[in-house]
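Minutes, project check-in
Item: structure for the 591-residue chain
Input as provided by the requester:
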Amino acid sequence: MLTLSLQYEDGQTAIEQFALPLAIGRDADCGLRIKAWRVAKRHARIEMRAGKLFLEDLGSLAGTALNGRRVIQHTALAAGDELVVGPCLIRIQGDVLDDTHRSGAPEDGAGVTIDPVTALASGLTTSLGRVNAGTPERNDDTSLNVVQRAKVLSLRVRFHQALIKEFDLRRRDIAALSDDDLRAEARRVVHRLVHDDVSLPDWVDSAALITEVVNEAVGLGPLEPLLADDTITEIMVNRFDEIYTESAGQLRRHPAIFSSEQAVLEVIDRIVAPLGRRVDESAPMVDARLKDGSRVNAVIPPVALRGASLTIRKFPARRPTMSDLLDVGALDPHMAAFLAVCVEHRKNILVSGGTGSGKTTLLNVLSNCIPEGERVVTIEDAAELQLTHPHRVTLEARPANLEGRGRIDIRDLVRNALRMRPDRIVVGECRGAEAFDMLAAMNTGHEGSLTTLHANSPRDALARLETMILMAGMDLPLTAVREHIAASIDLIVQQARLASGQRLITSIVEIGGTESGRILSQTLFQFEPEGTACFRGCGVLPESLALPVLVQAGLGPDTFGQRTPWQPSSAAFALERAAVLNGGAAPDTVM
């Protein structure tokens, strides 16, 4: 017998066992019958040869895909392989079994043996069972055989549906209940349903089952314990039965799964609906945030071919400060003092870096250096900045509604911010035409503004700014664009993430006008990884700040030529492992 996990495009799932050889197709005599126009009458065949499983495509028009590649002739199969036949995703669950393992949980508790690697690849759920027929109690996933895990999954679906029926939305106004009251009511109902069910197997952990059903019905399902785990810094749902987490800088497959594709879609809707956003086939991508500020991105079909995908970057409760960045070696004390005095004296700063290099973290830290008496307006596509400044206004862009109207871009918000009497404007990220309006604000009485963009070096950042200004539709010569940039930006702070995962500032560059149509720049500080890694001043005094101002801040002429060995403290790495700082775990915690 061969155990297969079946997942259909409409969200239906099943785990079944088949005799070999197994024919797959539309014909009634096929062992695995899939009724769909993309499936041939006899589409493919799985059989045993010389002790190994082999897959053969029988010449179907749509073809058979194995692990993302189309199968032409005979191909050997292994546990965890994934086949796509028409609308059905088929996963090989484990080794071939003899007929003695066809029934449910055996009386002797032996069950179907699955090694941990196969159990992890299967993606089946969680720690809901205890095999207690003469064996020690075990809560890990491998203590349940394939049939038992399938039974647990079906129980979750059944009790979820029973809970919805029990609430009877036509008679019970659950919208009037608070989140806590709704969760308490749901737990009470599920607790009664579970304990009244006489058919519940003895090996099922009823308390864990109740918790998972309630989480999926009124919460975020299997994501709830992951969000509560401080050691997990990022959660990635590739599809309903495939969840990965980042912990201690490493990606790991988590055994928890959703009960169905529809359950993932419902969780995504619970996240985005309170923010006034939507996600459907016409708008299949959305950025959002959780109540604690954690960043959320969701993509659903038809864009996501394997099913709804959800990515959550968790934000810690305590925000990093400049001293935290110093502790973990993201910069040296001279660079920290220089950036602080630049923010205080209203220099326009552009934070540049790649994805995940920590631009948002640094922007938060720099924003907290703004004097308290100034009015700050923050503008973001999805609100992520969490300033401690007392006098601030937070603006967020908005997508179009169902009629395609009401869209508000970052560019619109930047223009509106100019009428709000801001002392500083902080734009979370410049991605397009809003760059022109941002630079215009910096150059027309709103000095000291901050923004970020994606670029791999300061020179690339300037080139990207030129491109984004041209995207604004301004019919300007390139020389005028460069003069506009040079007059608006004072400093570029380049962020990077090293191969080890450490995030730090690699250079601080001052913009010094234009000459012969080129933007002039000089590097003030830079990180040197070769040999004994260090932060080094380049021996050049900044032109944007007077020497008395620098001396008053403790930055004499000698400061800009000193070397500081790069030695992150052990305490900093302890903070990283504890996921105290933004970005998560060591070595990816800071920035």
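Outcome recorded: The two ends are 51 Å apart (CA to CA).
No further action items on this chain.
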